[in-house]
Amino acid sequence: MQIWVDADACPVVIREILFRAAERTGVTMTLVSNKAVRLPGQPNVRFVQVPSGFDAADKRIVELMSAGDLVITADVPLAASAIEKGGVALNPRGELYTSENVRERLSVRNFLDELRGSGVNTGGPAALSQRERQLFANQLDRLLARHARNTARQ
Description:
six-stranded mixed sheet
C-alpha cells in the first residue's frame, strides 16, 4: 500500500500527521500538487509536481495509484475514482469514503455546483476542528494497522 495525497488543498496540519505516520510505519507516501510542497527529509516521502490545470493532480493520482492504495483527498470525484480503481479514500476531516457514500457526496457536490452556477452563495467548508484532526489521525492509524496485519499474514 502507498499513500497518495492530493496536496493542493490538504491542510498543513493533516500533512504533518501524514509525515509522522509515514516515518513511523515506513509506508511510501507521495504528495501530488501543481505547486511546490515542503517535505521532510524522509526517503519514503515523495513529491510529484503536475502542471497547473483543472484536476491535473487528481488525474495524476488516479493514473499512478494501484488497487489497495490509500488516497487522502477532500475532492469527491477523486475519491470516487480511487474507489473505482480499488483504492481506499479518506478525507482530511477523517471521513472514510465508501462506494455507497461517495455516490451521495457526488450528488450533493453536483447540486451545490449548480446552485453556485446560478449565483447562489453556498459558502465554503468550516475550519478544520481539533475533533476532525483527531478523527483523521485515528482513521489513518486504523487503516495503517490493517495494512500491517494483512502484510504480516502474507
